[in-house]
Structures are given as structure tokens and as C-alpha cells.
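Teaching note: in complex prediction, the entire set of molecules is handled at once rather than each chain in isolation. The prompt given to students was simply: 'Predict the structure of this complex.' The entities are:
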Amino acid sequence: MLKLIGYEFRKTWFAKVILLCITALLELVFVIGLLTSDESTIALSAMLLALVATGGVMAMGLISVTILHRDMNTRQGYMLFMTPNSCYKILGAKVLENGLTILVTGAFFALLGALDITLLFGHYKMIDRMWELLTSFMTKMVPQLNLQGHVIFLFLISSLCSWVLTVLTAFFADVMASSVLRGKRGGGFVAFLIFIVLNVLIAWGSRQLTDARIFPGVESMFIWTSVIDLALAALMYWVTALVMERRLSV
Amino acid sequence: MLESREITMKFGPVTALDHVSLKLEPGHIYAMLGPNGSGKTTWMKLATGLLKPAEGEMLWNGAPVGVESRREIAYMSTEPYFYSWMSIRQVGKYYQDFFRDYDPARFDALLARMELDPALKVKNLSSGMMAKLKVAVTLSRRARVWLLDEPFNGIDLIARDAIAQSIIESAGEDRIIVLSSHLVEEMEAIADWAVFIRKGVLVESCDLEEMRQRTSQSMADRYRSIYGAEKEVI
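The expected output is the structure of the full assembly:
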């Protein structure tokens, strides 16, 4: 399994290096902006960093979907599917590699964001005061809102778990397109519809499960939604691997 | 024993194999013969488990092919399939990582025989070098079954001789080797059993020596008599 994960990592290595290089470049611009007190540079680089962070986490998921698609639809897939590994193991390696990548990328950008905000507070003392005013205003507007560090952390974890589930739903739709729907007219469109319908159903079901409970705090709600997303991701993995094992021809 | 029972494979409206039943016994080198589109490659992919049949079953020692059989069955596709970022050495490492029967010393020896530099990147190989690499890495497995689809394709005469020698060296009492190629004369020098397939239907599976005595034909002549009629009609 570890070897499979290693090779999956190698397949996405180039994209990860590009993301790191772009991030390093923007971070450098941000630090130069701070050192020269060039506010427009700081603002622009901070915005771009936020964009790259969001886009980067999403891109890691999308890249893994394209790699799965290539493995199922090109000759390179022989390298994977002629090895003595079951589809459960092959897909499991892909899911673990991608899940870890998403979590590590998310954690990396969260830490980088925290570092940049700290640097910004250190450089501009008045921002500290502005942040306090902003949080106090927002807490008054939305009393349930809690902008403490651990809550933001749990929110990020919850968002990442939700993205992992979305990626697994895309895996399922792609496997359906490459197996059960292969060669059928409009198969790709049907697979896309499956993806959309599943996402709507998952969002609805998740909301029902969340609304049915009363949470003592926003923290427990984030933990609950993360657990639901991970449980659904596990179910999605199992169903996808089952379809691969029984119906996929490469 | 590798066996297909009433195996049928369809690609959309096209039937690539139609209820083919075939038993391959250890100790033989099989020449799988037929014109393009006759179903040879499909049969091999089914035997490897890369394709799932529409009907029938493919068995290795009585059990359906799958994860366990892939430990003992080595398949070489006619198309290149290595990851483009790999070097020749990394291809060997990949096989070492996943196949317990892989023999790195044999891989090195075969690379030397094929005059391939392990440092070369797969994406920089010519079609002939790629063909030699496919044969070298597949034969580097001490497999029970080798399925070699077009092993002589795009390879010069000297390298073909090297490949033929490597195949003969790999044969053994407990091994099955299946070759498909359009170079019928070259296959006749290696194989001892012939399997003729036409349009997805098994025409004949016979011991070559017995066939020669029975029909007074070489394998190439037999091929012409089976498939030549189709050309005349066209």
C-alpha cells in the first residue's frame, strides 16, 4: 500500500512543486511589501495568496481526479491494474494520498496565513485594534459566531473534509463513466449528472443530520459535520472500489 | 493451467471474442495467430484481468483470474504503457516493488543483451527501444505465464534474435508462454503449439508437430489456408 501511495505522490509531484513555487514567490512579494511598507503590494500579494491557497487545495483534488481518469482510460493504466493489487487497494492509495495532500496543503496554507497575519500585526499596530473592533462587531451581529483560533481551525478541518468528500464523489462519477457507462451515448454527461445529483443529495442529507441535533457550541457542530463527511467519504470509497473491481476494463 | 471457458467480450456493438474455450497447459510455447482484429489481444487482456468478460470466465489453476493470478501471470501489451517520467532503471524498480517474481539480475542481463542504457528516460526512447524494454522487463519476471503481445513489433532482426533467444531460455516444464505476432515464420521457430483465432472465434488449437503431420503444412501455410480465403473473397 505504501508503495502505491508513493507512486501516486510521484504522479502529482510536479503540480505540487509548481504550487509551492507560486506560493514562495507570492510570499516573497508579501515580505518585500512589508519591509518597504508598500501597502498596495501587501494587499495585492495577500489577496493572491488567499486565492492560491483556496485554488491550490481545490486543484490538488481536481488533479487527482484527472490522474484517476488517465489511469482508467489510457495505456498507462496497465502499470497500475496489472499489478497484484485489488481495486480497493489501488483506489485506497489514491484516496489516502489525495486526502493527505488536501489536509497537508490546507494546514500549510493555514499556518502560512497565520504567520502572515502575525507579521502584519507586528508591522502595523493599528491592525490589531482594527481586528478587535471587527471581531467585536461581528460577534454582536452574529452572537453564535466565535472567531477564536481553535474554532477557525475546526472550520478549516470541516471544509477540507467536505472537499475530500466532493473529490470522492467525482472519483465515483468518473469510475461510472469509465466502466458502466463506457461506450454508451451521452455516458460522460450522465456521469456528470450523477456527480451533481450526488452532491445535492449529500448536502441535503448532511443538513438533515445536522439540523436534527442541538449543538452546545459551534465547535461541536464542525466536528459533527466533519465526521458525517468522512463517513460518507468512506461509503463513497467502498462503492467506487466495488464498481471498479466488478466492472472496470482498462 | 490457464483456461478460458465460453469467454465472450464485446466492445459496444462489436463482439471481439465469441464463446472462446481454450486450455493452455504448462510446458508449451503457444503461438496465438490471426489477422488484425481477430481477438488475440482481447484474449490476453482477459487472461490478465485487465478486461472483464461479458460472458464466460477466465481461470488460472481453476480459480478466476484476479489479484492472485497477477502474481504469476506476466503480460506485455503491444502498446507502450510505462509512465513517461520514468527512466529504464525506474521501470525495473517499479516491477521490483510490485512483483515478487521479478529478478533484477535478469533485468540487467536482458538490458545488456538488448543494448539499453538504464539511465535513459522512457519518454526519450525510440519505438524499437521501447519494444525491447517491454520484452526485457516482462521476461525479468520469473512468472508462471508470459503473455507477450507482438513482442517482435518494430524491432530489427538482430534484436528479434535476442528476444527469441530470451523467450526460449524462459520456457520450462512449469511455464506457459503465449506469443502473438504477424511474423508467423519467426513464431514457428519458437512455438510448439498454435492457436488460430478468426473474428473472435477459435478456429483451431493444435500441437504444431501433430498439425504438420496431419496436414503436411507448415504453420505459415496453415495460416494462409485458414485466413487466405478471406482475402480472396475481399
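Point out the following to students. The mean pLDDT of chain A is 86. Chain A has one domain: 2-247.
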